[in-house]
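Work Package 4 report. The design task specified in the project plan requires that, given a folded chain encoded as structure tokens, an amino acid be chosen for each position. We show below one input record used in the internal validation round.
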């Protein structure tokens, strides 16, 4: 996952990019707070990298900016390359929720798909109030453990080897019932 310095560097670059996105739209922190449902103080602290953004916060901001989480995180990296070495894949962690996200194949110019490895510790429960892009296509393939995914008010229990295919239009929830952690591959395709 890298050392703490690497994660701090991602937080700083992410904060700068979030401030750029807001500024490019001419929005004040107050306007962004109204659009995203996130407090001004939290937005300000995230832009200044005083806090590490949570998965829920990034999801809300991605929805406002019309980006997937991988697109946003790829914007804080160097120019994309054809081969993404394991050591060069961006890892982001939301320690509070027990979620670790590795961008295996970040968005690339001319491509609509991306590949993410997700890990949730046993008991972790993450709810997203909306998709970052309505109609986003997702393929969730469980590699180890068990994952419960709720979409369109239907709960799907996925064990190792199972794959859920869906388009995301509304709230979703990812839960690891345990007893062991879950590791899954997430393929995201823009509509």
């Amino acid at each position: 996952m890298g050392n703490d310095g690497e994660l701090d560097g991602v937080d700083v670059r992410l904060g700068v990019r979030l401030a750029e996105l807001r500024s490019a739209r001419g929005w004040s922190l107050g306007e962004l707070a109204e659009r995203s449902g996130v407090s001004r103080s939290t937005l300000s602290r995230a832009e200044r990298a005083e806090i590490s953004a949570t998965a829920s916060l990034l999801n809300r901001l991605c929805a406002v900016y019309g980006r997937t989480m991988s697109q946003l995180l790829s914007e804080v990296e160097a120019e994309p390359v054809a081969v993404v070495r394991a050591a060069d894949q961006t890892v982001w962690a939301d320690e509070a929720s027990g979620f670790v996200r590795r961008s295996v194949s970040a968005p690339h110019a001319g491509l609509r798909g991306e590949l993410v490895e997700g890990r949730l510790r046993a008991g972790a429960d993450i709810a997203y109030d909306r998709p970052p892009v309505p109609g986003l296509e997702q393929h969730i393939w469980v590699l180890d453990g068990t994952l419960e995914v709720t979409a369109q008010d239907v709960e799907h229990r996925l064990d190792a080897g199972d794959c859920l295919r869906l388009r995301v239009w509304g709230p979703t929830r990812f839960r690891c019932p345990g007893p062991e952690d879950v590791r899954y591959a997430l393929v995201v395709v823009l509509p």
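The chain has a mean pLDDT of 88. Validation will be extended to a larger panel in the next phase.
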